[in-house]
TrEMBL record:
The keyword Transferase applies. GO terms for molecular function: ATP binding; transmembrane receptor protein tyrosine kinase activity. Transmembrane segments: none annotated. PANTHER family: OS07G0166700 PROTEIN, SERINE_THREONINE-PROTEIN KINASE UNC-51-RELATED. Residues 1-296 form the Protein kinase domain. This is Protein kinase, ATP binding site-containing protein. SUPFAM superfamilies: Protein kinase-like (PK-like). It comes from the Eukaryota. InterPro entries: ANXUR1/2-like, Kinase-like_dom_sf, Prot_kinase_dom, Ser-Thr/Tyr_kinase_cat_dom. It holds the Pfam family PK_Tyr_Ser-Thr. The keyword Transferase applies. GO terms for cellular component: plasma membrane; plasmodesma. Keywords: Kinase, Transferase.
Amino acid sequence: MSSLSVDLKKFRIPLEELKCATDNFDCDFAVTDDSYLGELSERWQNRTALFKRFNKEEYGSHELEILSRLQHEDIISFIGYCDEDDDYIYMAYEYFDHRSLHDVLKSESKWPFRLQICIRVAKVLNYLHSGVGEHGRVIHGNIRCENIFFDCRDDKFDTIKVSGFYYSKLVPLNQPHQHHSCPEELLEMSHTDPIYKETNLLNTESDVYSFGVLMFEILHGIGSESGDVRNLHQLMNLVRGCYDDGPYKLTDPYLRGNTNHRSLKIFSTLAYKCISFDIKERPRMDEIIKTIEKAFDVHQVSLFIRW
């Protein structure tokens, strides 16, 4: 990390600051084996931060370079980093003590709430894909329920945060894709674009595929009432087998009878386009946003007519 740019240096946090915030990385401050929770000093606005530890030999600077450039209210805030330790680099993130989307989908939630989640996440991806200033487009590379957090009460939420930028890549605006070997961890995950797995070509369409998988998780739910599907791999097998049967078989039983059928159809048709094996058929994120907003409007109008 010795060749960091001047812009990145302003994010450097002294190792002593981290030790003070975590009582010298005491186990009482540990969240996992490689992460700690602590409060920074006044210089960093006394912010509560999550410190993640990475092995220097394995950690690339791409996440650091990307996060330092992102400015979006729905993206988890990057506070800084520390590279003074001989073996490890520490990344400091905004601490967001709320549930992940994975947790929320285990409970009953109404259709407008689920659509609003999709719209907010899609807008984050559209921001990333549109280009971060003059630096290029960002491909997230790991969009999934476990990387989306928000504060929700009674099917309402004010804050949503997209995280999980460890596998993200910055692609110049004049390049359609980037040749990058798919990490072994992502090869095993059903939300990873199969074309990326096969060709090692990472592009914005890769994120669109992952977003499509996310859409089906939101449509189907992952609670005990959602059928016999026990994992994402099983869900995607069900999705591929239900194409001709419409959205009904894929819909969370909690939503059936309470959700406009046309809205469900618009949503599921879009989701199928996102996971197409032909990347030319996958829509852009701006198109995705408009279509989900249409599904939302159709459902809301149906409620008004019913009333």
